[in-house]
Structures are given as structure tokens and as C-alpha cells.
Design goal:
Elements (H helix, E strand, L loop, with lengths): L1 H16 L3 H25 L3 H26 L13 H32 L2 H15 L2 H21 L3 H32 L1 H4 L1
Helix pairs in contact: 1-3, 2-3, 4-5, 6-7
């Protein structure tokens, strides 16, 4: 499924650049539900990890097809598009650094669990990891806002004609983005801090 994951990320980038979030999210909802319900149903028919994995790969393929259809509506020129091999070098150089970052980030994020398990116990690591995983999910709220704000910022920079208009529109979008992230993330963070003992 790895090639499908990469293709889906690229197709999502096209949809985000054209602000087609409504269609993409409507396509995502049933597919994401299938990620959980599909393997469960498959295991009733065929009690094997292979069955669950095949369903997950099928979900990725369906998502690729749905994204491609939406991309063609947003950008009909994709039908006759050909690879631009001259752009491969810069993309690979940039992608290399992103790959290194993506490999190191999970290692740094989970290293503390291994240290706790080695120094204390696996039970202590579980007691630490469960609330940590719940709290870290708060970041999804900010990521959701940034996923739609970044294309809007790019569009504002690309389409602005006068420098004053550009600065006004970009700073306005940036300010609204930061305030939205603050409004979404601050309340659950405060709740986790104020009621930490009770929640734990």
C-alpha cells in the first residue's frame, strides 16, 4: 500500500491547492470508516491477518480512485499530464530531508517509552504512554486548520497584485489561522492541566 499512500498524499495536495476540502472530506468519511469496519468484517469471513491487510490496501486503492476523480474535476489538464523529469532532482533533495525528518520524529517521540520500560517496567511505560497518546491527539485540531490555511496563504501570495494587498490578505489569513488554532487547542489543553489528577 506504500505507493498508494504516496500517491494519495500528492493527490490531496492538488485538492488542497484548489480548496476542494468539502469533496475530499466527503470521500474520506466512508473510506475512513471502512479502515475500522472493513478488517473487522473480513476477519469474520477469513480469520487471518492477510484478510485484514487486504481490506486496508483495498481502502487505500478506493481512496486513490476517489481523489483522482476529484482532482480531474479541479484540474482537467491532469488527463494529458506527463512527468517533468527536470523537477525530479529538486523534489528528491527536498524529499530526502523530509524523509529523514519523518524517520527521526517518531524515534524521538517514542524513545521515552523505551527508557521508562527499561528503567522501571512495561506497566509504568503503559501508564505513561496512554495519557500521553490521548493528549498528543489534541495536535490534530491544529493540523486540520493548518491543512486548509496553508493553501489559502499560498493562493493569497500568488494572486495578490499590489504589495499592500498582499500583506493585508496574507497577514489577515495568518492572524485568523493562529486565533482559530488557539481557540481549538487551548480549551482541551487547559482541561488536561486543570483536571490532570482526576483524568489520570
Amino acid at each position: 500500500a506504500a505507493p498508494l499512500v504516496l500517491v494519495n498524499a500528492a493527490l490531496w495536495g492538488v485538492l488542497a491547492a484548489h480548496q476542494r476540502f468539502a469533496g475530499a472530506n466527503l470521500a474520506n468519511l466512508p473510506i475512513l470508516a471502512l479502515y475500522y469496519l472493513g478488517p473487522l468484517a473480513a476477519l469474520h469471513a477469513w480469520d487471518s491477518l492477510v484478510a485484514a491487510t487486504l481490506v486496508l490496501v483495498a481502502c487505500r486503492a478506493i481512496m486513490t480512485w476517489a481523489y483522482w476523480r476529484l482532482c480531474l474535476r479541479a484540474l482537467p489538464a491532469l488527463r494529458g499530464a506527463r512527468p517533468d523529469w527536470a523537477a525530479a532532482g529538486p523534489l528528491l533533495r527536498q524529499g530526502g530531508w523530509i524523509t529523514v525528518s519523518n524517520l527521526l520524529a517518531p524515534l524521538a517521540q517514542h524513545l521515552d517509552r523505551f527508557i521508562i520500560a527499561a528503567r522501571l517496567s512495561a506497566e509504568a511505560a503503559a501508564l505513561y504512554a496512554t495519557p500521553f497518546d490521548l493528549v498528543i491527539r489534541i495536535a490534530v485540531l491544529g493540523q486540520a486548520v493548518l491543512a486548509s490555511a496553508f493553501p489559502a496563504l499560498s493562493t493569497a501570495l500568488a494572486t495578490a497584485r499590489a504589495v499592500t494587498t498582499e500583506e493585508d490578505s496574507v497577514s489577515r489569513i495568518f492572524r485568523h489561522t493562529m486565533l482559530t488554532v488557539l481557540a481549538l487547542v487551548l480549551p482541551p489543553c487547559l482541561a488536561c492541566i486543570l483536571f490532570a489528577d482526576l483524568l489520570l
